[in-house]
Amino acid sequence: MPAAERINRKLAAILAADVVGYSRMMAADEAGTLAALKRHRETVFDPAVAAHKGRVVKLIGDGTIVEFASVIDAVNCALSVQRPAEHAPDQRASQAAIVLRIGINLGDVIMEGDDLYGDGVNIAARLEPLAEPGGICISSIVNESIGNRIDVRFQDGGEITVKNIDRPIRIWRCV
């Protein structure tokens, strides 16, 4: 059987998240920043991922790639992470230093072991830096897929060209 036939693929919603200003924060206070990041993951991010049936695929320093079977779950997870009003007041105060940007895409991915590869992942990673601090940037296919099934509307950000992707991508933003 040729190698191309043995590739294991599936459709997945991919969430890419990254901490705003992480390098600057680490330069100012490595131990404090790492403690705040761990606390944010334990009290906000990881519980939101679990509650929305996601799977953390990869942690890359301050960045995270998460897989979901549903775009609704992916977007609702992002909204719960980005809405500080949903966290208890004492958590809000302790998490003030950690602000994320989140990008979400729906696409075909290649599964290899526990890892995911392909355009579906790459586009999500390119959308993440296009989100405002504390915001979410989604691809057009995600916006079309969620329709009116969530309580937030995304604003059309137009078509953009991103690094190493050979076609323009229409983006939608929520702040």
Alpha-carbon Rg, integer: 16 Å
Separation of termini?
48 Å
Q: Please give the oligomerization state of what you see.
A: single chain
What CATH architecture do you see? 2-Layer Sandwich
Integer tally of domains: 1
Helices and strands: which structural class? alpha+beta
Strand elements, count: 8
CATH class placement: Alpha Beta
The biggest sheet, with number of strands, parallel, antiparallel or mixed sense and barrel status, is: 8 strands, mixed
SSE ordering: EHHEEHHEEHEHEE
Helix content: 25-40%
**Structure annotation, total helices:** 6
CATH homologous superfamily annotation: Nucleotide cyclase, GGDEF domain
Q: Approximately how much beta-strand content do the residues carry?
A: 25-35%
The third-level CATH topology is Alpha-Beta Plaits
Low-confidence blocks of residues: 86-95
Shape annotation: globular
Mean pLDDT: 90
Describe the structure.
There is one protein chain. The chain is of the alpha+beta class and 175 residues long. Helices cover 36% and strands 32% of the residues. The protein has 6 helices and 8 strands; from the N terminus they run βααββααββαβαββ. Strands 1, 2, 3, 4, 5, 6, 7 and 8 form an 8-stranded mixed β-sheet that branches. The chain is globular.
